[in-house]
Design goal:
With 248 residues, the chain is of the alpha+beta class. The chain is 35% helix and 14% strand. The chain has ten helices and seven strands. It has helices at 35-45, 106-114, 132-139, 149-153, 155-159, 167-177, 187-192, 204-208, 215-232, 234-243; strands at residues 4-11, 21-28, 65-68, 71-74, 86-90, 97-99, 102-103. Helix 6 (167-177) crosses helix 9 and helix 9 packs across helix 10. Bound molecules: iron/sulfur cluster (2 copies).
Length: 248
């Protein structure tokens, strides 16, 4: 184990600086140290003005999402001894910077509000009862901690900012669509407003998810298949023509 590590931390204050730059700090390494510990060491011992957002330090809140040596990762879950003796820590590139490592992820909350909400089937008797086997399909999606690392790595979000809701919200839609008591079809929303067609299934989002959610395999691909069924399947199209709406 190295005794110390060079931490190159991105610094940028939009209220003062024209552009950001990396600043190097030398930090003593302790057994089991994670990148967030090293950033806290800098904040507590070298520069208290360093901007960093964190909360649980247990990979449950998603607050300390950043780019570590170029890879979207949680600072609290990334061991210093897994990275060599020089570490670069930068804020998520897909979102505006508030200060240093802190980004403004509020656009994600705006997208969240647009997803058609859980709509239970009519006439359900209370208490609602769901068989365990029916719960299991959506359980994986409910593990999402909303770190937005998948949004950060998605090239569509980076390039077409306003057109695609992003992988986190494809997961959210899949979570609702696979709920056994939900009654609506979100294909129309995902196709016409959500920009699902922009996703070209590169799986970059899936590769960075700290909860190991199979974002593309289990959420995006089935949602895309559902869109194809709703819009282009001749039987469904005839059915919709008769009912006059998109499969609802
Ligand atoms: S698979 Fe789709 S959502 Fe995931 S990173 Fe690639 S384009 Fe974005
Ligand atoms: S799907 Fe995974 S990467 Fe995306 S926000 Fe949720 S936990 Fe984070």
């Amino acid at each position: 184990m190295n005794k110390e590590v060079k931490m190159n931390v991105y610094r940028f204050d939009p209220n003062k600086d024209k552009e950001g730059k990396f600043q190097e700090f030398t930090v003593p390494v302790k057994e089991g140290m994670v990148v967030l510990d090293a950033v806290h060491y800098i904040e507590n011992n070298m520069d208290p003005t360093l901007g960093v957002r964190w909360n649980c330090k247990a990979a449950r809140c998603g607050s300390c999402a950043a780019e570590i040596n170029g890879k979207p990762s949680l600072m609290c879950k990334t061991r210093v001894d897994s990275l060599g003796d020089k570490i670069h820590v930068a804020p998520m590139k897909a979102f505006p910077i508030v200060k240093d490592l802190v980004t403004d992820v509020s656009r994600n909350w705006e997208i969240a509000r647009k997803i058609p909400e859980f709509t239970p089937k009519k006439g359900l008797k209370e208490p609602w009862q769901i068989a365990e086997i029916d719960v299991s399909r959506s359980r994986e999606f409910r593990n999402c901690i909303e770190c937005f690392l998948c949004q950060d790595v998605c090239h569509v979000i980076r390039e077409h900012d306003k057109d695609y809701i992003g992988p986190r919200f494809m997961v959210k839609a899949a979570s609702l669509d696979t709920h056994p008591l939900d009654s609506i079809n979100r294909s129309k929303f995902l196709h016409e407003e959500g920009g699902a067609g922009y996703c070209n299934i590169t799986k970059c989002c899936q590769s960075v998810c700290p909860e190991h959610i199979a974002i593309t395999d289990n959420a995006i691909i089935p949602e895309k298949e559902s869109i194809v069924d709703s819009y282009y399947d001749p039987v469904t199209m005839l059915f919709k023509k008769i009912r006059g709406k998109h499969g609802q």
